[in-house]
Amino acid sequence: MPGVQLPETIIATDKLGHFAIYGIFNWLVIKGLASSDNLTSKSVLIATLVVTIYGVLMEIVQWSFFPNRFFEVWDIVANFIGAVLVYFIFNFHFTKK
Asked: Can you give the residue ranges of every domain in the chain?
């Protein structure tokens, strides 16, 4: 279904949603790795790449299979930034110990 038209601001509200959701998604994936004792710098990087690729694939699926939905590069950018921010937070925390 088409989304609700939101007023335009400096940063679109839906992009903040993408940023937050993919940041939380990456956080949960990395926390899962930590709870299974598989947390390394490499595993955190791979988790971030997987979450980012998932975001790209969801944009493609949305565009391909749902009428009135569109592929938006800026959604992918917001997904990527959210996931990468969490990567840096975890990487900083992980290397400090």
From this structure: 21-96
